[in-house]
Amino acid sequence: MKKFFEEIALIWRIDWVSGLLIFINPLLQSTLPFFPVIFGANIVNLLLADAALSTIMVQVYWMTGLTFVFSLAYAFTSMMFDRRQNTLYFEFNQEIINKGLSLPYSYLDSEQCKDLLRKAHDSNNMFGGIGNLASNMSSLVQSLVSLAYSVILFNAVLSAGIYDPSKADGSLGYAFLANPWSTALVIGVVIVSVFITLLGSLILNIYFVKAMDKMQDSNRMFGVLVNILEDPKRGKDIRIFGMKEGMTKAMDLADESFNKALFPMKGKAGISTLVTTFASLLLVLAAYLFYGFQAWYGIISIGSILIAAGAVTGLSSALNTMVSSAVNLVPGVKAIGYYLDFLKVKPQESGTEKVEGLTRPYVFSFNHVWFKYPNSAEWALEDVSFTIKPGTKMAVVGRNGAGKSTIVKLLTRFYEPTKGNITINGKDIESFDFAEYQKVIAVVFQDFTIFDYTIGENVAGSQEEDKDRMDQDLKIAGVYDRIQSLPKKEDTYCNTRLSKDGILFSGGESQKIAIARALYKDSPLIALDEPTSALDPMAEQEIYNSFGSLVEGKTSVFISHRMSSTRFCDRIIVIDKGKLVEDGTHDSLMKIPNGIYRRMFEAQAQYYR
Predict the structure, then answer these.
(1) Residue 88 forms beta bridges with which residues?
(2) CA 426 remoteness from chain centre
(3) In sequence order, which ranges of 412-479 are alpha helices (DSSP H)?
(4) CA-CA distance, 107 to 136, in Å (whole number)?
(5) Which pLDDT score, from 0 to 100, does residue 163 have?
(6) What backbone phi and psi angles, to 5 degrees, belong to 505?
(7) β-strands 364-371, 419-424: how paired?
(8) At residue 117, does pLDDT exceed 90?
(9) 177 vs 161, 286, 291, 296, CA distance in Å?
(10) Nearest to 212 by CA among 130, 126, 341, 137
(11) CB proximity list for 183: less than 8 A, separation 6 or greater
């Protein structure tokens, strides 16, 4: 229940118009059916009493006018509510994106966050998202308003009683119908019917919540397999190694598991609906018989039968709507609840100092840095200390899993050291405003991303495009001639998803564009994590030759398995099992007998002799 009210508050906060319409729209919808009932009853009573035509027409005018006005208002709010669904969906997703960008990268990269967002995403796809949640909330409000109106009409029937002692015939039938306790009995039947409906809905929802986790796991597995089979890159392996049959069997098993969880729930939902419908029919039948006989004996007016019929019909409809909306609401509340938990995560704490306050050039230092990834028992880095002097070209080498990329993640503040600290000009980098600090460093990540935008937008990033600078950086990265050969040059999209004229660049070309982006940022420190892994040896050598002149005056860090990147570096540090084990120049490290660097260099060099 707490989540329900929190999600109402969430809808109201991100789009108050939708929050308002959740209540206004069902209020209008529930009110409309009761105008004909109330005024119709008055008209029938006036006709039986031989009232003047002008008096009767007043009731007709009021009924027609109010019905027309409320119908227009309901049509307008319904149209607005439908239109606001897109706004609500967009604003909600924008809030999730903004929240994600405000959180520490270390949290986004954690299994806890991935599992939370995976559940939220799967639940959102299965149960319609926040728009469907708002619709079900509106339906629930509509059923509650209809229920309230029905109670009011029942009260109107009670007060319309015209007990006439002269008509008492001494029969038990009349005595029962005229006794006020008989009306209390009818109200009791109504209460029991409502209780049965709510109890059935509650039991069904409890079962539904238990079944959701199984359904999510199966749905997730099915979705993963579909994505694999639809991915052209994976299609080659699937065909070569005959994996299609195994994957389709896995899809069948996931589908079977999903249905095992779904079908029993559907069966129970059907039973719940059947019980609710049967209870509503009994209620309608009992009420019609009761009020029909009351009118027969003259205990109530003929017009009151219309009011009683409207009350019973409204109550029956409200009960059915309540069940269906409650059944649909519970999984929706739980689905959006995952997102709500995500929105409650504390944003990244950031310092307030400005990097511009430091005197250039910048000196970066790792000071006895220890680091352990979340939920890991092993140290990724152990007591690592080194200083990167201004203008230095430094290489970080080591075996796979040695901790090289971790150094970049710490240097960029995507993670914080577990022990020790990293400083710039002697000040802890955590003391600076995060966004301001990011201006100091440009990185080409090992798993870099080329976005589906134009080449120019990819290179310039968030900055304004400077054509001369961009051309220079594209030339240094070795991809300028390729881009100039395209009809739209830098305005070419880097994929076909946003434009049919887009280009699917090769891995090497994409890597060169990523390198040009890092150069364009023009930061004092540039870090390259396996920057030439997708390039052939000649293209790699061309880039390194260009880098030598480009990074002159800048500080650069190269992380690579390829020893060719170390020959032009001023300094090389070797990381092994999280520890800094060797530090020096190429020549000095080659003199260490049985040294790790020497062994790695010679192992690669033999393939080029």
Answers:
(1) none
(2) 41
(3) 434-438, 455-460, 467-477
(4) 33
(5) 47
(6) -75, 155
(7) antiparallel
(8) no
(9) 11, 13, 9, 10
(10) 126
(11) 158
Q: Is residue 454 a contact partner of residue 502, using CB atoms and an 8 Å limit?
A: no
Beta strands 393-397 and 571-576, pairing class:
parallel
**Considering only CA atoms, which of 106, 342, 326, 70 is closest in space to residue 201?**
326
Whether the full predicted model's pTM is greater than 0.70, yes or no, is no
In the sheet with 393-397, reading across from the earlier edge strand, the strands are 441-444, 525-529, 555-559, 393-397, 571-576, 579-584
pLDDT at 503 over 50: yes
What is the mean predicted confidence (pLDDT) over 206-217?
A: 64
Residue pair 174/310 in contact (Cβ under 8 Å)? The answer is: no
* Distance (Å, whole) CA 391 – CA 548: 11
User: pLDDT tens digits, residue range 41-93?
Assistant: 777 777 777 788 888 888 888 888 888 898 898 888 888 888 887 777 778 87
Nearest-CA neighbor of 515 among 499, 485, 491, 539? 539
Distance CA 497, CA 500 (A): 7
Residue 112, Cβ density class (10 Å: 0-12 exposed, 13-18 middle, ≥19 buried): exposed
- CA nearest neighbour of 193 among 273, 283, 268, 325: 283
Could you read off the pLDDT of 271-291 as tens digits, one per residue? 666 766 676 677 667 767 777
Closest CA to 286 of 188, 419, 408: 188
Structure tokens at 477: 């990265």
pLDDT for res 387: 92
Distance between CA atoms of residues 583 and 246, nearest Å: 50
The mean pLDDT of 339-365, rounded to a whole number, is: 79
Tokens of 395: 């290489």
Token pair, residue 1, equals: 């229940």
Residue 540: its pLDDT value, please?
67
Q: Which two tokens stand for residue 319?
A: 């009960």
Give per-residue burial for 210-245: e unless 16+ CB within 10 Å, then b: ebbeebbbbbbbbeebeebeeeeeeeeeeeeeeeee
The predicted pLDDT at position 303 comes to: 65
CB-facing half-sphere around the CA of 352: CA atoms within 13 A: 0
Cα separation, 363 vs 361, in Å, equals 7
Q: What would the two tokens of residue 412 be?
A: 């960029």
51 to 48, 64, 164, 298, 542: CA distances (angstroms): 8, 19, 22, 19, 103
pLDDT of the residue at 99: 80
Q: Are 265 and 211 in contact (CB under 8 A)?
A: yes
* Assigned token pair, 314: 């409204």
C-alpha to C-alpha distance for 467 and 464, rounded to whole angstroms: 10
Give 172: exposed, middle or buried? Use CB within 10 Å, 0-12, 13-18, 19+: exposed
Token pair, residue 151, equals 């109670």
Residue 576 region, left (φ>0) first, then alpha (ψ -120 to 50), else beta?
beta
Please tell me the distance from the alpha carbon of residue 75 to that of residue 38, in angstroms, as a whole number: 22
Alpha helices in 231-301 (DSSP H): 232-240, 244-296
Cα–Cα separations (whole angstroms), residue 176 to 185, 343, 542: 11, 60, 103
Neighbours of 165 (CB within 10 A): 6
Query: DSSP label at 32?
Result: T
**pLDDT the model gives residue 385:** 92
d(CA 152, CA 286): 19
Q: With CA atoms as reference, report the closest residue to 434 among 349, 524, 538.
A: 349
Residues 466-501 have pLDDT tens digits of 888 888 888 888 888 899 998 888 888 888 777 788
Chain-centre distance for alpha carbon 46: 59
